[in-house]
Amino acid sequence: MNGQDFISHYGGIYEHSSWVAEEAAALLDDGSSIDTIAMVMADCVDNASGDKQLALIRAHPDLAGKASIAGELTQDSTVEQASAGLDQCTPGEFERFQSLNTQYEQKFSFPFVMAVRDSTREEILTAFEARLQNDYDEEFEKALAEIHKIAGLRLAAMEGDE
Questions:
Q1: Is residue 69 a contact partner of residue 78, using CB atoms and an 8 Å limit?
Q2: pLDDT tens, position by position, 95-141
Q3: What's the CA gap between 127 and 6, in Å, rounded?
Q4: Which of 60, 88, 93, 122 is the most buried (most CB within 10 A)?
Q5: C-alpha dihedral over 119, 120, 124, 126, to 10 degrees?
C-alpha cells in the first residue's frame, strides 16, 4: 500500500489527527503487521512535540458530551461511546458526566480521555473522579496512554474487518 493509501486507510486511527498516519507511512514497509503499525504510530505520537501531543488529546470529544448529543462524533467514537452505554445515560448520569467534563477541562485544559470500549458507565465515572485527583503531568501521560489503547482497539477492529 502506498503512502496515500496508508493515510486514507489508517488516518482516522488517532482521532482527527491524520498526521500520525502520515508520519508512520514514511516509516513502514508494505505488508507491515497490525502490531508493527500500532507500534510505529504510537512511537510517532510519543516522539511528537508536547504541543502536537496536546492537540491530539484535545481532538478527543467529551464523554457523553455536547458533540455526542449533536451527532458530531466520528463513527469510531460513536461506536465506542455506545459500547459503554454512554448513549443511554440516565438524566442523573448525564448531569454527572457534564459536571465532571467541566471540572476536568477547567483543571487540565483538555478533555478526559479513556478507552471506554467494554467499560460500564459507572466504571467510567469512577475513573473520571479518581483521575481528577491527578496532577497535570500525570494526567497528560495517562491521556496519551488511553489514546494508544483506543488506537490499538481501532486497529484490531480494522484487522477483523479485513
A1: no
A2: 999 999 999 999 999 999 999 988 999 999 999 999 999 999 999 99
A3: 34
A4: 60
A5: -120
Give the residue numbers marked as catalytic.
Answer: 60
What 8-state DSSP symbol labels residue 14? S
End-to-end CA distance of the chain: 14
**Global pTM?**
0.91
Q: pLDDT, tens digit, for every residue of 47-87?
A: 999 999 999 999 998 888 765 665 667 888 888 888 888 88
**Angstrom distance (rounded) from CA 24 to CA 20:** 6
User: Looking at this protein, which amino acid is placed at residue 125?
Assistant: L
User: Please, are residues 149 and 118 in contact by the beta-carbon 8 Å criterion?
Assistant: no
Between the CA of residue 79 and those of 6, 41, 75, 84, 133, what are the distances in Å? 23, 22, 6, 9, 28
Q: Read off the C-alpha cell for 103.
A: 471540572
